[in-house]
Amino acid sequence: MQASNTRSTTPFGGVSAEPHKPALKRFVQDADDRAAAAKKVAAAHPNFRNHGGPIVSAPVVHAGFWGGAWATDQAHIQRAARLGQFLQDLLASTYMNILSQYGIGHGPGNAGSFAGSGTIAGVPNQLTDANIQGLLQSAIDSGGLPEPAKPARDVVMIYLAEGIDVEGPSPARMCAPSGDNAFGYHHFFTTTAGNPFYYSVIPALDDACLRASCPSDQGCSLHLALTQEQRQTQVSSHEYSEMVTDAEGSAWFDGTSGAENGDICNGQSGTITVGSRTWTVQLMYSKHDDLATKGRTTC
After folding, report:
1. What is the rounded CA–CA span in Å between residue 131 and residue 138?
2. Which residues make beta-bridge pairs with 187?
3. How many CB atoms are located within 10 Å of the residue 277 CB?
4. pTM higher than the cut 0.85
């Protein structure tokens, strides 16, 4: 850990299997955070603030479906289409009003755009975060993904098929036979052209993945009663919100706990409705509501 005002040298944000818990504490408090903590501020999270790092104010969202099942199994192909629709609807929904207070867009329909989906069938069953970055770089090199511009706009939501386990940035481990502790994460790397590239990884989140991560369903941030699609949309809303508001682990987070906006409300689900479609999402932390209600309403 660095004794700076941000985080470790490899910051990332993830969905913990435990409700209301950050996936990783990545930093120590800086002087501003210590000073704020000493004040009596009428808010549940007075130290949640912008630490000055990059955000993605006008995201262009790409969906990536990794694993052979997304290319060959009809049920997966249909779910991929629905997840792509979810991302479009998320951007068009009132959920975007929450993110606008952090500098992300200007509310429903003005908070970014959906660029489309792509599939990579030949993915190993065991991935590391370095593997994921290598596959993303290859997609950029082949023209499957655009080289990100500065300031960055393009972000990728990666959905993994069943049977793919991930050893992400330490200590994140997802959908593995043992040692599971996360349901998703967001991270970044610098492309060979020298530009920052932001991405989120959402594993299959099937029943086996949940049971490997949670000793009891009651104490889990996701639940077996949810469909697999509902789990993936809930985690997607968490990771998307963190990825655009805290792209490199140095922008919006709580200087005391290390929690990003998704972590504060982790495990609390709600719904959004766009047209005739209703989707499961995670409730998201609102700094505005926290201050306005003196800590009574945060998510």
Report:
1. 11
2. 199
3. 13
4. yes
